[in-house]
# Entry
Amino acid sequence: MSVITKTITVRSNGENDMIDITRQTDEAIKASGLQDGIVAIFVSGSTAAVTTIEYEPGLKKDFPEMLARIAPSEIIYEHDNTWHDGNGHSHVRASLLGPSLTVPFKNKGLMLGTWQQIVLLEMDTRPRDRKIILQLIGE
# Structure
């Protein structure tokens, strides 16, 4: 059993940006030399999240609208009262989804569904450089 850690960096356009990182994750698996295992995908930061979705225009619009209904930006957040940075809703939204995801791979390929992609969701109110840590465990 081997453990390999790789890092990818992406630049977001700020709040509601959804970035498909499936290709970079798949490339990391192929370059690792591992045949079968799991990849843990973790975004470092408290205002971004990682999940899977069908990465298509309708859902790219629907998903942020859903988050706005659950954690609207126009209500009072104590985080904003403390730090005055206007991103309390960003922290809440990111916490709901979580910073990580684990996906199995077999024969050097991700075991995703046909319409399933791995995405980074930017929740912060400004563009950010995001570091995504990929930890591959397998043989």
Remarks:
- The longest strand covers residues 2-11.
- DSSP finds four helices and eight strands in the chain.
- The mean pLDDT is 97.
